[in-house]
């Protein structure tokens, strides 16, 4: 939990130009052309972009975050401290379960697909084409690599 807290505290500085929408009492509407993409958090492998549509992933409470990844992108086996609730907006999300990235065991989830994993569930992802996903869950959001050497922040 301590690692997740450290990750969450660093989120704001790591998101770069990604916009943060208020999760207060006002309604929120975001048209596709209004999405402001910026660098994804450095806890993720380089190359992804992020946009926060609602809430604040660094704080407790509901948030909606989109990630855009390029072809060939992969996230090694990892877990999250909270539920992982994902909708595939475009492209294909290849989801594998477990502590080893065995691509042969992954399931291809095309645009329109949805999955939800409980906290602490080890999984990995890879992408053969540009893909956009939306994570809608409760913060603070974090990511813990099964193999600490896979953490991009440790290799900098």
UniProtKB/TrEMBL annotation:
CDD domains, per the entry: cupin_DRT102 (cd06989)
Domain ChrR-like cupin intervals: 27-140
InterPro entries: ChrR-like_cupin_dom (IPR025979), RmlC-like_jellyroll (IPR014710), RmlC_Cupin_sf (IPR011051)
SUPFAM superfamilies: RmlC-like cupins
Domain of life: Bacteria
Protein name: DUF4437 domain-containing protein
Organism: Sinorhizobium mexicanum
